[in-house]
Design brief:
The complex is a heterodimer of chains A (about 220) and B (about 500).
Chain A (H helix, E strand, L loop, with lengths): L7 E10 L2 E11 L4 E5 L6 H14 L4 E4 L11 H6 L8 H9 L3 H13 L15 H15 L3 E5 L7 H14 L2 E5 L3 H7 L2 E6 L2 E6 L6 H8 L2
Parallel strand pairs in A: 3-6, 3-7, 4-5, 5-6
Antiparallel strand pairs in A: 1-2, 7-8
Chain B lengths: L2 H5 L4 H18 L9 H13 L6 H29 L6 H12 L2 H12 L3 H25 L4 H4 L7 H35 L7 H11 L2 H15 L2 H4 L5 H13 L10 H9 L13 H44 L5 H21 L2 H12 L4 H29 L7 H32 L10 H10 L3 H28 L11 H5 L2
Helix pairs in contact in B: 2-15, 3-11, 4-7, 4-9, 4-10, 4-11, 4-13, 5-7, 6-7, 7-9, 10-11, 15-18, 15-19, 15-20, 15-21, 16-18, 16-19, 17-18, 18-19, 19-21, 20-21
Classes of the chains: A alpha/beta (about 220), B mainly alpha (about 500).
Chain lengths: ~220, ~500
Amino acid sequence: MDGAAPLARFAAEEIGWPGSPVLRDVSLSLRTGERIVILGRSGAGKSTLLGAIRQRLEEAGQTVALVPQEHGLVPQLSVHHNVYMGRLDAHGTLYNLANLLWPFARERARTAPWIDTVGLSGLERRAVETLSGGQRQRTALARALFRGGEVLLADEPVSAVDPAQGAGLLDALGARFPTLVLALHDRDAALRVATRIIGLREGRVMLDAAPDALGPDDLAMLYAA
Amino acid sequence: MRPETIGAHVTRKHVLVGFAALTLLALALADIRLLATQPWETLAQMGRGLIRPDFAEPVAMARAAGITVAFALCGVFLGAATGLLLAPFYHRRLVRHLCIAVRAVHELFWALLLLQVTGLSPATGVLAIALPYAGIFAKVFAETMDEVDPTPLSALPARTGTVSALLFGRLPQARRDMLSYTLYRIECGLRSAAVLGFIGLPTLGFLLEGYFLQGTYGAAAAVFFVYLALILPLRIWMRWPLAPVYLVASLWMLGQIRTPPMGDGVLWRFFTQDIVPAPLRDGGWLAPAGWTEFAGWFASLGWEQILPGIAVTLVLSQLALALAAGSALIGFPLLVRRVAGRGGAMLGHLALVLSRSVPDYMLAFVLLQVTGPSMLPAILALGVHNGAIIAHLMGRRSELLSRSLRDDAPRGLTLWGYELVPRQFGVFLALCLYRWEIIVRDSAIFGLIGVATLGFHVDAAIQQLRIDRALVLLLAMGGLTLLIDTVSERLRKALRLAAVPETTPRGAVAAR
């Protein structure tokens, strides 16, 4: 879809807190259909960049689905409720309240396929706090899948599951969202999923290219001490 | 003066020396005489009553017990529901000040005021508990909801409605704390309901007072045991799934109370006549003479009742706080196994639970029979009750602390002196400062047993049907509580004490 207006655009901008930017001189535009993976050492500013993209997209009125690094789940609520929270903005308060007290069969039926996609079928009524770390992460993914929309922004979305399952989950995300922006630490997964890789180092975008244009040295440079 | 500026100069040493000096001054001013002619005789009679309780009137006792629970549950649930509705708006100044105002007045005084309007009816008892508790619930619920983990909120879709965000993002996380706080409040509600009997509502306190005044200590002891049998196993019988059942039963129980009829239009009269200062009534406010008279009325009230009342309140609360602090510091290690041993810790728990469960007013009433009418029973009751609460919180922390210490840490009193007290002294000071404002507020109620605090003058004014005076005195009482609250907060800031000591239940620390 080259040529269409970008979903979000940064032109030589500073990102972070006023006075103490985390990233400098960021120029990039995000287009529909792209699969961007952000790479970099921890603390390089991946989450900050994701946050800035989210803000830009929401200001433009895009529907954005999120998988934050800390998941942002409510531990006391059930898997169904946490997944349903992905679409709280689609209903009025009374409807949300009613579904909180006594989940509607209709809403259960809507969330169930996505809970199934992430492999949590049968756990819909379990409180998230009783789940394992991997299961919690799957719940956060199901919430994003249920929400749907133009763009998925995910911060280490498969860090707590094994690589084979992670690959399946990333494929499910790719099937659901036209556009993906993922922060990953797994380079192999990144090369498999991405149509474009953005590498961060020392507060700057050091790398912005398609994966097949990259050699192993390019990625190693991002992580070198 | 801003807190930051005193912060630079005030140290713990200053506060402790000042506190000791104030305590000595209060001791010199206080009336702590033992006025009774035969205190040991009375004490022995009470002891005999405790050993041989007399359950001769089981129906009356069961009924009073039921009504006590009914008042407590209806009052607490109504207060909690109102507080829950107010909590999201607690950051608004108007709501916050309204809540501070309603909780600055003790349940007993709410009841005395309500008696003028709703008479000896269930509404009086329920509202007397629900009104101040609503103010407390609003504050605590608002704080609980502010303190939840914010990450789920930041993960919500951008255009989620405020109420939906509250319902899904905050309430579920806060729910557990809010329920455990409500349970703690039910315990307080039982104490309040029992004490409401002393002003005529048909709860256990009413029976207790009657038996006491007749000198039938066996029957009084029986009532006391019934009360303990309700409040000690509260956490066993009060199960949330059963709450609706209890609530319906309570409402039915309250429906059974026969209420003496009130005259027509009392509410109207209360607001248009009774609470209007006497010189301004009946068109007085239209004439300049009315206002001149009002100025004199107000000045004499201030000189003759408000200022002396405040002085007595401060003296009483200073001594009670000193007693509470001292007994807590000595008493808390009784709860720690490494200090008191396993058996000692169990006995310590029992003693502290008993002193916490008996309302300070009830304790003072009993002591009054022994010591005679001086300030002594009020000081002892306030000091023991609040000391037990501080000791309980300190003891729980210490038990955890003593398990995390190195293996060669000392035991016994050496542990107390070298590890437990120094490590927790900041917490101890914070707890004392919190209890200070509660003690000041509660000291008013000992006016009802003759200590000339502000509450004494309120009670007298209400007896004389001078509700206008009572209202001004109650406002003064609220102002004093607010002042102590501010001073206590500034001292905590100046001493850099934790805003809320980490020990839960939060309520036991922060709430009144």
